[in-house]
């Protein structure tokens, strides 16, 4: 019990340390984000180690396609399972990661909840929100991608 509490307490620091190491010494990184909807509401996550509401996502593993990573991250972080293939929406440069990070964004059709969400070391909470009533703290990148899709804002290449 004590060990689990220590691990949970240290998780935000571990995430920040990993980000710092990638910024300082890492090569180019590729991450994915899944823009998923259920009954017209967008599915967002709030991490334990970084502020704000984001699309579910994460890193692409070795020998894994970006599309498969988007579907995997959606399931791992939220418990929602994709109904079919994810559709590629764009590749974005993320300057916040010392000029090394790129984000592949996918539209993922949501089928159903495969397992109930339980808050964990990485994800504090998930939520489904109307695109015109996003929660306070929704990141600028998340808002921008939704505006590009629903309001006709021109596509940019920066996350």
UniProtKB/TrEMBL annotation:
Residues 27-151 form the Nudix hydrolase domain. Its cofactor is Mg(2+). One of its GO terms (molecular function) is hydrolase activity. It comes from the Bacteria. Keywords: Hydrolase. Belongs to the Nudix hydrolase family. This is DNA mismatch repair protein MutT. It comes from Pleomorphomonas diazotrophica.
